[in-house]
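Reposting from the mailing list since nobody answered there.

I have sequence plus structure tokens for a pair of proteins and want to know whether others read the tokens the same way I do. The first protein:
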Amino acid sequence: MTDLYAGIEQNNFVVVGRAGIDFFTDAGVAAEDADRVTVGLGGSSANIAAGICKLGGQAALVTRVSDDSVGSYCVGQLKRYGVATDYVTPVGGEYRNSLAFYESRVEGHRNVIYRNGAADFQMTDDDVAAVDYSRFGALITAGTVFAAEPSRSATFKAFELAKAAGLPIIFDVDYRPYSWPSTAVAQEVLSKAAAQSDMIVGNDEEFGFIAGGFDKGLAKARALSATVPLIVYKMGEKGALTFSDGAEIATGIYPVEALKPTGAGDSFMAGVMTSLADGHNLKTSLLRGSACASITVSRPGCAPAMADRATLEEFLSAHPGPTAA
């Protein structure tokens, strides 16, 4: 049987999913008032991988990027953050890297993501079969990778190959309706992915979606915990409920003055993974993940905003502490 914690303790992750380019406005500036934007690395899986590396772990990304200047930018940024790009493969033709344009503000925040003909959806079985899974301790992916073929089938193939190599599967539900052909397909595919995972992270809306109703989300998370070793049920400002070994752990958040809402989930994942790998217990690791999320939403960008070790420790020492669970 796969040992989730033993895999995480290796602090070396293979992350499957997209890298994208982000454009974001200056603090407090609406899109229509912007006369300049800043560019940064984005994409759920790329953010998680970058966050892990910034916090002292190791990560390699498996994806496809466009064979153009935007794809080159994404690869260059991954390397800058220390993410291994051995399994990042260019694809030509009309396929393009995803692009996000968002405002660095909370009130009235808008985030537009362009994914038509997305390069990352062209990841194939051959791409994931080329990975040497024995090099890694665990596989991480986010739900957007399942939204289209051939990426969907390739990721399930990666699950199969990773499990055969003894790696646990860590799944961030990350449901984005705009990427999917229908809600019915999304519900079926994300449920299938969850059933094959050793750890599931999602918010109350995402678990509710899988369950077929928002009010059923918590019950769904509890039910899944009977067969899934670790489930994190996030509730925004109310913190999180974590189900592990028959126990429920409630954790709060670290209040900050948020600059924007994007990037929190990716940084939470990176913080939890590296904290567990560094020997912290589960509750402490969840709180450190929450601190990473708070740091990210208080700064511009996604990958650029994520904490490194020094930033995280400084934040924890200076902050009065998390809210009550």
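The second protein, same order (residues first, tokens after):
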Amino acid sequence: MSDVQQANRRVVVFGLGGTIAMTSSDTGGVVPALSAEQLVAAVPGLAATDIAVDVVDFRRKPGASLSFDDISELADAIAARFADGDVDGAVVTQGTDTIEETAYLLDLLHHGSQPLVVTGAMRNPTLAGADGPANILAAIQTAASDDLYGQGCVVVLADEIHAARRVRKTHSTSGATFQSTNGGPLGAVLEGRPRLHNRLTDRTNLPAGLRLPGKRVGLATISLGDDGTVIEAAADRLDGLVVAAFGVGHVPADLVPLLAKIADRIPVVLASRTGSGSTLRSTYAFPGSERDLLDHGLIGAGFLDPLKARILLHTLLTAGADRATITAAFDAAGGHAHPSTWPWTTPTSLEP
């Protein structure tokens, strides 16, 4: 996309709070206080791009306090702006604690072809070397680009562009914390322009307009010598469960009867606690192996890490999906089946 084309674009920025919007409090430490308008006004070089920017001060929360309801309402607000036809892309600024989850949820709920970009900061505005302004600038430039057409929701930090379904926060403080361990970043922002190294070939969207009661989905990480006490104590209060298992999808043999019993009542998804790579389906056959657990009714997450698997399961349950639909959705989203087997209609072409 040429600089002239980019200059004719309009982007809307939704502020949710987070480190990027934090300033010092009277009691010490920093808290979300800056408005979306203040954040955008403080970005050096933005005016020179000639990209028109609208701002919406949507929330002022730490990333850790965002909820499914917050993101669902945000998705509706973004969809409404896109439906108006007056913006070419959207940016969300928020706390990095939950970006890998909120971005994937937005990706599932974003039905348009316009770029949707999530960004944040690892260093708050009171610190030397605060990264918020640079990240906002790169996010706006990405949202204004035709190259991101059809790629769904992406995350832009440290001048890298990551697909929402791949990205993970891998370090508690590093500015390079966001990584795509399965597939790598989609591209980078160079000299103010997004450059894609590769493109997604498919998208997965949930039906629009569904408003059903939210569900309670648990996430249990299996550890050495785990006897299932925590899982058993919580199981009766859950609508769904994600198990972050060892390696390619293994648990202690003694846990199998408990997980099988729970899987008879609610969907139980088997993910890998390693955070990258896929669960397997048929390589190992010992009690507690992936084959054993799948035979007992668990659902493989494939390449979806436990956090992404929980987001997908929660959203599927909220949409009223039955067991067969949930299984088909995970097979498609996790890479165990062709993307065309996704239970709902998705775009047939992602080309700009």
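Reply #1 (J.P.):
I read it the same way you do. Residues 217-336 form a domain with the Rossmann fold fold (CATH 3.40.50.40).
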